[in-house]
Specification:
6 strands, about 180 residues, rod-shaped, three-stranded antiparallel sheet, alpha+beta
Length: about 180
């Protein structure tokens, strides 16, 4: 699909501004100002609309321009462009969030990528029906969750066996239960 006019993204504001104008006719300079375009594009926007000629100047019907813009807003090209811009904005926001997360440095033990369930670091307790993690802040928690994920990835069978073979947790303890 060919590139769409830059003013497409401001179409709602342009329509509001045109509706608020007190004049029934708009000259080329008025179109330039409202649309934020230069002379050539303003003349293209005015082409084919009912107009008045005053000396050398031409003024188009404001209502006819509003009708054309409303038709444009309802058209496939505009709807496609609006959806595309929304997708791009969503993608950029997602990338911005991911980039911020990637800048966070999480300290981890040198051997953390080789961890298995039976040698989890201090502060991580894993047994049947219970996972307990003691941490000091978000980065420490992230580090311990990374360590746990490595243990699962490195030896799933041992991880699963640790959860099923351990004694059940004592009652009355505060823990994150696997049933949740």
């Amino acid at each position: 699909m060919p590139a769409q006019p830059t003013w497409f993204q401001r179409l709602d504001n342009i329509l509001s501004e045109l509706r608020a104008l007190g004049n029934d006719y708009l000259d080329r300079q008025g179109v330039e100002k409202v649309f934020g375009v230069r002379e050539r594009r303003a003349r293209q926007l005015m082409a084919g609309l009912p107009a008045l000629q005053i000396g050398n100047a031409v003024a188009v019907s404001r209502n006819a321009l509003i009708e054309r813009l409303e038709t444009t807003a309802a058209g496939d090209c505009f709807q496609w462009e609006a959806a595309r811009r929304a997708r791009v904005a969503d993608s950029l926001e997602s990338l911005r969030k991911r980039a911020a997360a990637r800048r966070v440095q999480i300290a981890a033990a040198p051997d953390v990528r080789n961890r298995v369930a039976k040698n989890l670091g201090a502060g991580i307790e894993l047994q049947r029906g219970e996972l307990r993690i003691r941490f000091d802040g978000a980065r420490d928690l992230a580090s311990k969750l990374f360590e746990l994920s490595q243990a699962m990835a490195n030896d799933w069978e041992e991880f699963e066996q640790t959860l099923t073979a351990s004694a059940p947790p004592a009652t009355g303890r505060t823990a994150l239960r696997s049933a949740r």
